[in-house]
Every structure is written in C-alpha cells, then in structure tokens.
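notes to self, project folder thing:

trying the whole complex as one job this time. last attempt i did each chain seperately and stitching them together was a nightmare. two parts in total, labels are on each line so i dont mix them up again. if this works i'll redo the older ones the same way
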Amino acid sequence: MELTTLLLEVLASGAASVAYAALFQVDRRHYVSCAITGAMGWLGYRIGQQLGMSVPMARFFATLPMAALARWFAITRRAPVIVFLLGGIFPLVPGSGIYYTAYYFIQGNSAMMAMKGVETFKVAVGIALGIALVLSIPLKGHTSSFMLPKNTVPAAPPPADPTREQPAAK
Amino acid sequence: MDKRDSEILQLTVDAGILLLSSGAETFRAQQTMVYIAKNLGAEGFEAYVLTNGIIASLKGDSAHAQVRHSPRNGMHMGRVEAINEMSREIANGVLDLEGARARLEQIRAMPDIGVEDQVIACAAGSVCFGYLFGGGVLECMMAGVVAGMVQFMMVMLTRTGMNRIFARLASAAMLVCAVSLVEVAYPWLDVEITAIGALMPLTPGVALTMGIRDYVSGDYLAGTIRLIDAIFAAGSVAIGVGAALGFVNLLGGGIVLWN
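result (full assembly):
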C-alpha cells in the first residue's frame, strides 16, 4: 500500500472520529485526543493487514493500541475513558457488516448472510475483547471504568461481576 | 439526619439517571452512585441499575428507596464527564451536598447539540467513511450530502415522536432514493460505496461492539439489551433499504439501477 494513501486514510479515520465525537457531544477540548485515538485505530488495522492478518484479527490487533491510547488520554486528561473510546472505535466497528448481514437476510440470500454475519460477529468480538483486555490491565491509582483521586479512596469495586472474584467451585 | 439521608438518595439517583440518559454504561452509573453516596457519608446505600431505570435504597435511621425510569435521550459525553468530575470533587471535599445539587442542575442545563451541528457532524463523518471504503471525490462528497440529509430527517422524525425503528426505516429508504437520484445525474458514481458511507451513522456498530463488551465484563443483561437494540436497528435499516430498492427498480422500468 502506498504511503500517501495510508496517510490519507489515517487522516480520514481521525476526522471521522472527531465527527462522531462531536455527534456524541464530547467536550471540544478533547477533539484532538479523539482524532489521535481514531487515527491510531486505523493505522493499527492497516499494519495488521500488512502483517497478513484476517480482518477480525487485524481489528483486534488495532484495538489494542487504540484502547491503550484512549486509556492514556483518560488518565492524563482526567475524563472517563468512554469519551475517547466511543469516537475512536467508530472507524473500526463493523457498521457496514451489520447492514450487509441484515440486507442479505431480507433478500433471502442465506449463504451471503451467513458469511457476512459470521465475519461481522468476529470483528465485533475482536474489538470488544481488545477493549476489555486493555481496560482490565490494573494500573496503580486508576481503574478503567472510573477515575479515582489518588489520595482519598483506596480502590473502587471492579465492574459488576461477582462471579469473577470467587474461587472456582468444585 | 433523616432528611439528609433522603436528600443524598435524591441526589445520587438524579446523577445516575442523568448518566444513563446521556449514554453512560450501567456499571459507570452504578459505581458513580455508590461513590457519591459513600463520600457524602451515607452508609448502607444500594443501587441496582438497568439500562433504562434505577432502583436504589438508603438505609440510615429509617429506610428510603427510589424507583426511577430513565428516558432515552441522545448521547452526551460532556454530561458524563461533568458528573464524573462532580463525583471526584465530592470525594475531595470540594463539594458538599448543597454544592453538588447546584452543580447537578448546571450539568442538566448543559446545551444539547443543535440540528445543524448534527447534520454537519454526520456529513463530515460520512465523507471520511466514503474515503475509507475506497470512494473517490464524488462518492465522498455525495455520501456526505446524503448523510446530512438523512440525519436531518432522523432528527425531524424523532421529534414528531415517531418510533425510532420506523424513523430509521424511513431514513434508510430516503437515503436509497437520494443516492439513486444522484446516480441518474452521475451514472459513473459507485452507488454502493456512496450508500454505505452515508449509512454509517444509521448502522448500530457501536451498540453491537459495546454490547459484546458488556458480555465480556459479565453484565449479561445490559449486553443483551444493547445487542437486541443493535439487531432491531440493523433490521430496520435493511428493510428500509430493501423496500426503497424495490421501488426504485420499479421506477426504472425493469432496468436495474442498482442491485
């Protein structure tokens, strides 16, 4: 792939992230961070593809640096991580895949529908796993889902998941 | 003391409802509420948060409880961030109960995005997606124009109180008609790229991904609700597109404009 094309695509991805960040009413001062997050996602995706990965795998691969960046912005700019994540994942999420799946379903083209549906599902799972993976890495003084002041409160409870804490039954 | 307990409960539930209706995740609303109540000195606060409602109780000298439904508004990350900031200031002792209540009113009064800005944002986003899907200048521009029109129609339809599913369906149908008209003017246009680029704001990609993320973090109820929301949204878009395609092909007198 040509470098200019790649550069333009990365720019377009960043711009798309800002556009959707604006639509989700993110505060103006975070626009640049959202753009960088979104651009990173697409860059990671293209790099993954160059390394010979399949589409879902490449999107998972792209989500890792993107989510890490979103988390870094969340810490340094003291805002919830979802502010940066929502715009950032927009270029990666399988919007067109969902549409094609539903479209082939209505057209009665079961073979195409199954193909598109499986790929869409894989992509969505890949992105979700990537986000969950990056956000669950413990960092001192910062939990992924919530910003805590470092001095006052020891730790927030993890996201509602009572089963995870328990030792395996049996 | 009893009155203070009920005021704390009121404040926390108000904050939680505002978070939910601004598009925050259920676990964030839950954690924020517990965090606020704890830092205002209320012991025995419990909250059960659903995607569209909150059940909360505070057991002080006597027991208080609230059951509230959360209306679904547009996403407003500015509010989510401001409430997050507010909870942090409560924890640091900067805000007391009165101050927090005043702050919450300010946050509620934050302006919502206007129709023009929504149209511009959708248009700009779709121009970019047109490029990412491999479109040329014409495809990108047309995707932007059509996406702006579609978003305008979405907003207007939802404002009349129309069901979101039908609003999506009608908008998707209008999108196909608009793209077909553009194709009549510019026959060399790649209709598929244009239409998909313009469709991106209507497709539930983020809902699907975030729903699966809820599953991964163990919140199956919130995940299921989002997933079903995504399926219905995708279905309504596809039905709108399918119906409009049939109509356009009928007008074309047997000539398939676009398949």
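what i see at first glance: Chain B has two domains: 2-108, 115-251.
need to look closer tmrw
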